[in-house]
């Protein structure tokens, strides 16, 4: 049983290797960029708060050393274009807004005059490599607060755009490496598949070497061994078929001769009819077991219309009239005896199980189609689905008696052995149509089109 590809998975081995590798790489890079951005922002905030605290350290020390009455004017005097300093009884920065508070031991003389330090780094300004509106609140020993607002804190930071470009380039290079590795891993399997498809079914040639890793070579060796066993089995079956043909046909021929000597004419006719039916059954079984290889019969260009006319004439000689419709002139590479058996089986079904049988040949640019139909009652949907099963006969066929149930199975095997197809269509009450399609010979080169 052939299992189709999963709906959510790629259809090739290379793609199935590449897809999870690419997905893992993308997830890793996204996680790296997120972590990098978080660490960079944290470092920038901490650095901005510490730089802002260093910039106001002198102003805080001066205000702490001044008399309380002089502190407001001193704070205004210490303010500048990018620094606003104020003194008061409460902090400008609430505790819940303080996101970064550097260690006072690292901020110069603030550790000597300050009891608490709150800092908010502000908003990053990527265009200028700075943090805007950094706020620092420092509580002095007497409980009052020095509040400072630093309008811009310059930072030395890496170029984030350049970093992202570099990461993207590395990711693209890794994807190329993964794609190349997956292609290299899948190439031996592709070569093995092409080698297996290219081997003719009747050849004893071994599989050509495909190379690749040890596992692929082991698969190739196992396939080669399996093909040798199948060839041996088919060869033994062909020998058994030849022996069976001789062993069965010879007694049937002797029985026919003896039946001709019977004095009772009615008994002689019934016996000859039964012997002919037995001979037909044996022939059907042998043809089915032989498949479509024609017993070693060579493939030659065949005029399909002429072959169909020969079969129709044979049925006419036996008293079964078959209507000839459109008969296009088309050549197909075929084994004449095997193809003739397939056409005979289809017409025989139409004659036995239908009424007013007809046949036509339609030639297109690449195909030749043999259509055989009738105007009988048709097949029930359940029988149509099982019509090509070996030894299956519908209710009407069983009631009519005779036949081996291998006619359609043998015809389909012959069609497929010729690179063609056999389909069956039926409209209840309007008849059944069998369509046998064969590749057409291309004019000028004698090969299938």
Automatic annotation (TrEMBL):
Pfam families for the chain: HATPase_c
Superkingdom, taxonomy of origin: Bacteria
EC number: 2.7.13.3
Nucleotide-binding found in the keyword field: yes
Compartments where located: Cell inner membrane
Occurrences of domain Histidine kinase (ranges): 243-442
Bilayer disposition of the protein: Multi-pass membrane protein
GO MF, one example: kinase activity
PANTHER family per UniProt: SENSOR HISTIDINE KINASE ENVZ, SENSOR PROTEIN CREC
Protein name: histidine kinase
Organism listed in the record: Siccirubricoccus soli
